[in-house]
Amino acid sequence: MTGERVYNFxxxxxxxxxxxxKKASDEMLNYRGSGMSVMEMSHRSRIFEKIIGEAEERLxxxxxxxxDYAVLFLQGGASLQFAMVPMNLMGRTGRAGYIDTxxxxxxxxxxxxxxGEVEVLASSADRGYTYIPAMSPIPEGLxxxxxxxxxxxxxxRYTSLPDTGDIPLVADASSNILSEPVDIRKFGIYYAGAQKxxxxxxxxxxxxxxxxxxxxxxxxxxxxxxxxxxxxRSLYNTPPxxxxxxxxxxxxxxxxxxxxxxxxxxxxxxxxxxxxxLDQSDLFSTMVEPAYRSLTNVPFFLPSEELTQTFLKEAExxxxxxxxxxxxxxxxxxxxxxxxxxxxxxxxxxxxxDFERRYGR
Length: 361
Ligand code: PLP
Fold this sequence. Notes:
Elements: E1 7-8, H1 18-26, H2 46-63, E2 69-74, H3 77-89, E3 95-100, H4 103-112, E4 117-123, E5 145-148, E6 150-151, E7 156-157, E8 169-172, E9 189-193, E10 204-209, H5 226-231, H6 241-257, H7 260-280, E11 297-300, H8 305-317, E12 320-321, E13 332-335, H9 342-359
Helix pairs in contact: 1-6, 2-6, 3-4, 7-9
Bound molecules: pyridoxal-5'-phosphate (PLP).
The site of pyridoxal-5'-phosphate has 11 residues, from helix 3.
């Protein structure tokens, strides 16, 4: 990190690569000789069509997305996908299966219940969402099965995918898209709000197998129909142009790092360093079962609220910020998305070691 910048462990919106922020700043007033900012351009202009087209191409290359899938840049966050998914897919049978792995999947379940019958196929609520539950055999007649690939608050992630056979698997990948390789062919829909691993808030990426668009429930608003957005290539109305441009710059950065495999190796190194420290510490603890540990969100705890507050205050004074755990679980959490450099995690672990030396028994 340079200058006055801190190591920002926010769960989202989150740290972006410095190279991306610098490039956006250089291009702010005059984007590549156009004499204007990307913020000031018509979304129907050639120049913007190139920006959105290149962002899509980069994501297709990075994730190896085949031609029978569309890549959409939508608004409304992952939360709107909680509604769009059932509105567009539930019509097939009127029933959908959901796996409950915590706060965000519960929200998705609640929203789906507005549009049809929801069957919770498995839940990890019994042990405080500290693991990923195994799924019982899938009942007949489900329109789709929904999972949350990484649970931002509890720090769990799917390390192997459930086998749903012919039933489309739908995934909320908001907090781990592009952090590790995935086979997109295993999913019917794979969606993510951008503000953690992909760019700024304001755009949601939806990767959808094209044959799943078009089956929406009657009276689904036009703006919420996947088939419309697929047909219009995300340009049915004014898209979040600047956020899409920023996502394009982040994807360019990921390519320059060597792609998803390289990023994955870096993420593993960062996460291992932090978990290694937590596992051997007598002062800090983590609840997440080792087999399901997230590479992007690491929740951890100190023995008392008083010590937790002292930790947050002292960490901030050292430029290690946004380490407070989600209000529903308390404690601490380090979000270490793609753009968090290894040095940031090293600085955190060094601080934690010193904290333990001073406050441990
Ligand atoms: N799903 C997951 C896994 C998340 O972590 C979040 C936000 O933190 C959301 C959904 C909600 O996303 P949004 O604010 O884009 O609606």
